[in-house]
Here is the input.
Amino acid sequence: KGTRSLPVSGWLVYWRVRWVHPRIVMGNKGLCVRLSRRALGAIMMASALSGRGRNLARAAEVKILQPPAPSSITARGVYVFDRQSGVPLFARDADLPLPPASLTKIIAAMVVLDRADLDQMITIVEGDLVSPEESQVGLIAGDVLSVRDLLFGALIPSGNDATLALARTVGVADLGDGATDDEAIARFVALMNEKAAAIGATSTHLVYPTGVDREGHVMSARDVATASAAALENPLFAEIVGTTSATLPSQVRPEGYEIFTTNDLLVEGLVNGVKTGSTPQAGGCLATSFDLGPGQIVAVVLGCAFTEDAEGFPDYSQRFADSRTLMSAAESGFVWLDLTAPGTLDGLTEELAVWDVALPGQIQVPVAVGDASSLRYRLRLAPPDNTERGPGELDVFVGDALLLSQPTVIASQVIS
Here is the structure.
């Protein structure tokens, strides 16, 4: 009296029925568990939600949420996402490998920050100098600058000369003093590709440290966004890409080297980083970071349209217009919802309590205006002996598209 029997099928149910201390019996359909009405109700509620989740999971395997970018922008590749939650706001051919131009220097700076002593002094050599048409600090052969100052020179005015000096130095340090400049640069490029792989930039293949047009030198918009977010974790990188101007000290030039940002949106105060890029092959490229909602947004545009003036000089300002459009669309088109707030996801609070799991603090995610009613979830619970991924994960969907997967924790481990 007061019990029901259910066939046992799958580890998910197995763990759940263990949690409610079932009595295992043999029935005419094989091994069964005997549960109280209360426990059965919990199982049926969770099973119904999990069944819906399994259907959604099959769709999510082939459909990850990628909201389309505004049609008016000219960029070939677009990726905009919320750094805090990892949720995308806009995407267009986000995984298409494209020439990234000087956005390459984001990866270059990460390698330097990983491997070089910021106070190390570097003597500039003739091989570091670049042609007049390339972006540069204007370094003088024989001058001596610190790694720290050269990072400012590589990122603020997008100096190819500063980047090459850094690449050569890191490459020689890795190979040994007998390495030639070409060997050192090649080694630095290899380190850049290793770094890209390590951060999950899977569509990236780099050929040269500065990002000048080279065959096979590509990154996707998603990769640039991933690299930007990872690089911004470093306080010095974040400081540099948020600086509009500086004067670098020089041992041969009394006035030093005055440098200015190439990022118009930074000058306008609309963003707080990250990097510009442009070549005839790459078009206009721009990675930006700006505050919106509870955190920071990273937006990347690759391959923006450009024009030429009467003298044939390219004008890459469309990348700034495209980025402004994305910023405006993000501000007006999204709201941030707290997944831990009662009512955001119907039934979630109750199901988390049933299985003694919780979310690790407040989780706020951007959702397109009008999509809140389309939010669904699946709670996936792990076997009790699984120590690698914790007690499970919460998958949140907009319709049948996966919005995010959030690991859960044991409820007793959450500090209130």
Notes: Residues 1-42, 44-60 have pLDDT under 50 and may be disordered. The longest strand covers residues 283-292. Residues 37-60 form the longest helix (24 residues).
